[in-house]
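Design request, tokens follow.
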């Protein structure tokens, strides 16, 4: 039920975003940046989705805990998320790991990342804490989850999505009764339990939690004093609450933001190169599952000031064109042919280049006569003239990072080694 005066509950919430993850399965893509700072969708970073969900839901107090290689993430947050005003009861705190509690420890786990910042978060006097992971792609109205939390008198409400039982071992799995009260929480079980009435489906945690603030702070202080705890929400705090308190599951299908009548709920963990490539390329579909053009639920980000994309030359074999593709501002397609690709800001593609199924990050330059297929190209990479990728699997694997599904990640050190 809404707060007093029919105010949305989100007005009384603070979003705490955990954005310290390394994202090691993205390999060289996270050599210089944390996973939440990885580019996505032509203009955005991964973290922009959780932050945009919070703002669009009406949450105007946000804290972000950073740790691993946080410079590019912090710079992005400072440039793109600096519109919060204290005089409107808004706040935006960036909280790098800084050994504030102990001079020996950085953030030991997800729970410790919040615990170490209680003295910063508590004075905001937020009634609720909405705890978010900063590394997933989805659209969700957290107001609906807050309302369920209050209506069911929960100590913690956990955002959940349905996954095939055969894939459920990669998640924290929740076993519920007929009223969505959680009976057990198992972190990445070998034999996941199924949902009531759905033997082939398991209920997986999204890493999204709603707490009453005072309850959360008391639990974190208890956990911090436990020498046997790893100070992680999924491994320690949540199982303890399930056993000793009242934990409730919130189904993502109830709060997923959709822009059409599609009944599917879009959520992606772009934690591998194959998943990252596929999620970006899917955006080139005529009607993609994730709608970036929905103005009622925008994805906020740092918008660089750039000129429009430009397409030049109109000769046979040397025509600047892009088909079934997304091309960001500042790109110049100079006599190159682009198909089913996503180009971020400021990409240059030179004459006679043929590019297909490519995710090309900002300010990369594609040399003349290149043929690139099924690739991810990191920011600022200079692709030399005549390079061919995607036609000889063995040669690709020797030169670049090639996945089992045949996607090649290319960064500048790999290019430099070609001429060494």
């Amino acid at each position: 039920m809404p707060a007093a005066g029919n105010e949305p509950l989100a007005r009384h919430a603070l979003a705490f975003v955990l954005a310290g993850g390394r994202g090691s399965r993205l390999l060289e893509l996270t050599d210089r940046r944390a996973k939440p700072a990885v580019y996505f969708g032509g203009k955005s970073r991964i973290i922009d989705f959780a932050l945009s969900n919070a703002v669009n839901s009406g949450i105007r107090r946000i804290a972000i805990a950073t740790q691993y290689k946080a410079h590019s993430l912090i710079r992005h947050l400072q440039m793109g998320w600096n519109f919060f005003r204290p005089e409107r009861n808004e706040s935006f705190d960036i909280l790098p790991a800084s050994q504030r509690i102990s001079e020996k420890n950085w953030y030991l786990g997800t729970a410790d990342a919040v615990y170490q910042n209680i003295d910063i978060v508590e004075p905001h006097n937020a009634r609720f804490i909405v705890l978010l992971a900063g590394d997933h792609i989805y659209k969700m109205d957290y107001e609906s989850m807050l309302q369920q939390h209050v209506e069911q008198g929960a100590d913690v409400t956990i955002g959940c999505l349905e996954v095939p039982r055969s894939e459920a071992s990669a998640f924290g799995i929740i076993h519920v009764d007929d009223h969505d009260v959680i009976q057990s929480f198992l972190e990445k079980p070998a034999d996941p339990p199924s949902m009531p009435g759905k033997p082939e489906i398991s209920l997986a945690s999204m890493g999204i939690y709603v707490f009453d603030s005072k309850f959360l702070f008391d639990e974190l202080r208890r956990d911090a004093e436990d020498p046997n705890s790893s100070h992680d929400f999924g491994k320690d705090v949540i199982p303890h609450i399930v056993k000793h308190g009242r934990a409730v599951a919130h189904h993502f299908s109830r709060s997923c933001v959709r822009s059409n009548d599609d009944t599917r709920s879009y959520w992606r963990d772009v934690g591998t190169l194959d998943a990252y490539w596929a999620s970006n390329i899917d955006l080139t579909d005529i009607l993609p599952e994730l709608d970036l053009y929905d103005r009622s639920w925008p994805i906020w980000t740092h918008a660089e000031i750039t000129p429009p994309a430009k397409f030049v030359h109109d000769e046979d074999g040397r025509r600047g064109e892009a088909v079934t593709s997304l091309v960001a501002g500042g790109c110049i397609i100079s006599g190159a042919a682009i198909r089913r690709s996503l180009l971020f800001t400021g990409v240059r593609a030179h004459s006679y280049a043929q590019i297909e199924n490519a995710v090309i990050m900002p300010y990369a330059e594609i040399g003349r006569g290149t043929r690139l297929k099924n690739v991810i190209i990191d920011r600022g990479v200079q692709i030399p003239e005549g390079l061919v990728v995607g036609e000889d699997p063995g040669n690709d694997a020797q030169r670049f990072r090639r996945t089992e599904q045949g996607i090649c990640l290319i960064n500048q050190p790999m290019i430099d080694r070609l001429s060494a």
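Comment from the thread starter after seeing the answer: thanks! The chain has two domains: 9-284, 310-419.
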